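Consortium newsletter contribution from the modelling node. Members have asked for a concrete example of what our holo predictions look like. Here is one, prepared for the adenosine-5'-triphosphate complex that several groups have been discussing at recent meetings.
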Amino acid sequence: MSHLINFLEHYSQMQRLQGKAQEYRCQLQREERRRKKQLRSLREAYKQRMKDKMSLIESLETVICEQQSVLERLQKGVVCIAHPISPLPSVGVHKLVESISVLQLERAHLQEEVGELKQDIEQKEKEQQQVSNTLQQQIEELKGKIQEREEELALLRAEMGVTDSEKQIQNLSVENESLKQSLSMTHGLLEKLAAVNTQPSAQLVKENDDLRTKVHHLETSLQEKVEQLVYAKSHMDNMQWRKEEETRQLEEKVESLKLSLQDEKKRPPDVQYVTQTVEVESPSLLHSLEKAEERNQTLLDQVSSHSEKCQRLEEQLQRSDDLTSTLQIKITSYESQIGKLKDELMQEIHQLEAQKDEAIKEASECSEQHMDQLRQQLLGMQSRLASLQPVLKNMKTNYNSLRSQVKNFAQFYEASIKEARRQICDAVTDVSEANKDLLQKYQREMQLRKRYHNQLVELKGNIRVLCRVRLHVDTGEEEGSGASAIITDVNDDTKLSVLYKGKDRNFELDKVFLPQTTQEEVFQEIEPVVMSCINGFNVCIFAYGQTGSGKTYTMEGTTENPGINHQALQVLYQEMEARKGLWTYSVSLSMVEIYNEVIRDLLSKDPQEKLDIKLNPDGSGQLHVPGLTNKEVKSFRHIKKLLSLGKRNRATFCTNMNERSSRSHALLTITITGQELSSGTATTGKLNLVDLAGSERVWKSGAEGERLKEAQNINKSLLALGEVIQALRAKQGHVPFRNSKLTYLLQDSLGKGNKTVMMVQVSPLESNIGETVCSLNFAQRVCKVELGPAARKIDVGRSEI
Ligand SMILES: Nc1ncnc2c1ncn2[C@@H]1O[C@H](COP(=O)(O)OP(=O)(O)OP(=O)(O)O)[C@@H](O)[C@H]1O
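And here is the predicted structure:
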C-alpha cells in the first residue's frame, strides 16, 4: 500500500513538473509573439518613412526637370540674340553664371554630405554587424547549452528507464526544441532587421549619385550656354563699333562738303563761274548728299530697329533673370527641404538604430532571463530527478513485491471467491428456505384470512338484506306529502318502523341505512362481500324498491357521488394492483337488460337482438348466453368507458320505449380470473350488480295491455328472485332458479357458497308508504329464513308481492 502511495506521490510530482514546463513554454511563446509584433511595427514604420522620402525625391526630380527645360529655353533665347546687331545686356547673363556657380558650390556641399552619410552608414553597418555577431555567439552558446542539457536528459532517461519520468523528460526535450526554434527565429528576425536597415541607405546613396550626375549635366549645359553668350556679346560689340565708325566717317564727309560749299559762295564773278560750276556741280553733290542723307536715314532706322531689338533682348534677359532668380529661390527652398529631409532621415536612422539596439538588448536580456530560468529549471529538474531516483528504486522494489503479491493474489482471490460463493450459496439457501417458510406462512395467513373473511361474511350472513331509506328530495311533485313516514332507531341500525294504516309496523333487517348515509358508508358495509369476488366467490348485489326510491342512485350514483358499481370496481382494481407480483388477474365485463323477460346485450353492436340462456355445450352443466358480449377489460378507465357505452345504449331504449329503465332490470357482470404465481392456484369470481325494475304494484291499479304485461313480468321476476333468495337462505334442496330470466341468468352466482346482498330501497315519503311497507315486507320475508347462530327475532309482516 505504501508503495502505491509513494508511486502516486511521484506521479503527482511528475504531473506538477509537466504543468510547470507547459507554463514556461507558454511564456516563451508569448515573448516570441511580442517580439515579432514589435519588429513588424518597426518594419512598417520604416517602410512608411522610406515611401515619404521616395515621394520627396520624385518631386525634386520633377523640379530639376522643370529647371532643365527653363535652361533649354534660355539657351534658345541666347542663340536668337547671337544673330542681330544690337547692344546685349550683360547683367542677366552674369546672374545666371553666378547662380550656376552657387549651384556648383551646393553640389560640392551635397557631395561632401553624401560622403559623410555614406561613412556614417558604413559605421552603423559595422556596429550592426558586431551586434549580430555577438548575438550569433550568444545563440551558439545557448545552442551548446541546450545540447548539453539534451545530453544530460538523454543520460537521465537512460538511467530512469521507461516510466512516467521518461515522459516528463520527453516533454522537456520537446520544450528545449521549441526554445531552440524560438532562438533561431529571433536570430532570423535580427538578420532581417539588419537587412532592412542597410537597404534604404544604399538606395539613398544611389539616388544621391543620380542627382549628382543630373546636376553635373545641368552644369555642363549651363557652361556651354554661358560661352555662347560671351561669344555673342563680343560679336555684337564689334558690329556696333563698325557701325559707329561708318556713321562718324559719313558725318565728317558731310561736314567737309558743307564747308566747301560755303567757300564757293563767298567768291567774286569768277565766282559766278565757280558758282555756275558749283551750280553745275552742286546738283551732283546735292544728289550725293541726298543719297548720303538717305543712307544716313536708313542707317538711323537700322540703328533704331537694332536698338528696339536690343530693348526686346534686354527685356527677355530681364525676364530670364527673374525666372532664374525664382528658380534660384526654388532651388534654395528645395535645398532647405533636402537638408530637412536629410536631418529627418538621420534622426530616423538614429531612432531606428536606437530601437534596434533596444530590441537587441531586450532580446538578449530576455534570452538571458530565459536561459537563467531554464538553468534554474534544469537544476530543479536535476535535483528532483536525484530525489526521484531513490524513490524510483523504492517503487521498483515495491512493484516487484506487489507483482509477487499479485501472483499469489490470484490464488488467494480464487480461494476467497470460492469461499464467498459458498457463503452466498449458504445464505441464498437459508434465505430461500426462510422465504419458503415465509411463503408457506403467507399462504397459511391468506387462507386463514380468507376463512375468517368468509366466516365474517357468513356471520353477517351469506345472503344479506339491507335497507336504505332515500334522502328526502324536495321536488315539486312531492310537495305537500313530504313528511317522513319512516321512523329509524338511532341506537339500533337494524330496526325501522312505519306507521301504516294507524298501526306501527316494525321491521328488523341486517342493516338499515338512514337517509343521510353517504354512498361511501353504504359501500363500506358491502365491501367485504365485493372483495370476496377477487378470491373466487360469485357475488350478487341487487337494488330492490319502487320507482324513484333511489335504486339507480345507490348502484350507479352520480359523478360527484359514485355508487356501488363504481366504488366496487375501484377497490377491486386497487386490490389487484396491490397483489401484483403475487397474482395475475384478467377482468371481463358484460352488461344486459332484461325487459319483459327478454335479454338484450347492452354492449353489443346490435342491442336490439334478443338473447337466450342455454346450457354450456362443454357438458359442465353451466349456463351461458350465446352471443353475449363479454369484453376483456384492460384498465379501470376502460371499464368506465364500457359502463358509459352500456348506459348510452340503455338510454336509447328509454327514449324509444317511455321510461323503460324503471321497468327493466339492468345487470352488470364483472368476471375476475386470477392466478397465484407461487402456487399456480386459479380462481374465478363474478360480481353481479343488478338494478332491478321498480317494484310498485301498477298491475293492481287496473293497468292494461303492454303496461299490464310489463307489471306482470316484473312481479314474476321479483317474486322469483325473492323465492330463490328465500330458498337459498333456508338452504333448501331445490332452488327455483328457472322461474324467471333474471334468476336463471344469475343461477351460478346465486348458488350455494356464493354471496348475495339485497339492498331494499324505500322512499321516506308519506305518499309512498304503501309501496315502502310492501318493499319492507319483501325484505323481511327474505330475512326471516336466515340460518345461523344468532337467530333473530323477527316481527314478520305481510307479504304483498
Ligand atoms: N340517498 C340519496 N341522496 C340523494 N338523492 C337521492 C338519494 N337516493 C335517490 N336520490 C335521488 O332521487 C331520485 C330518484 O332516484 P333513482 O332514479 O335512483 O330512483 P330509482 O329507484 O332508480 O328509479 P327508477 O326505478 O325509475 O330507476 C334521483 O334524482 C336521485 O338522484
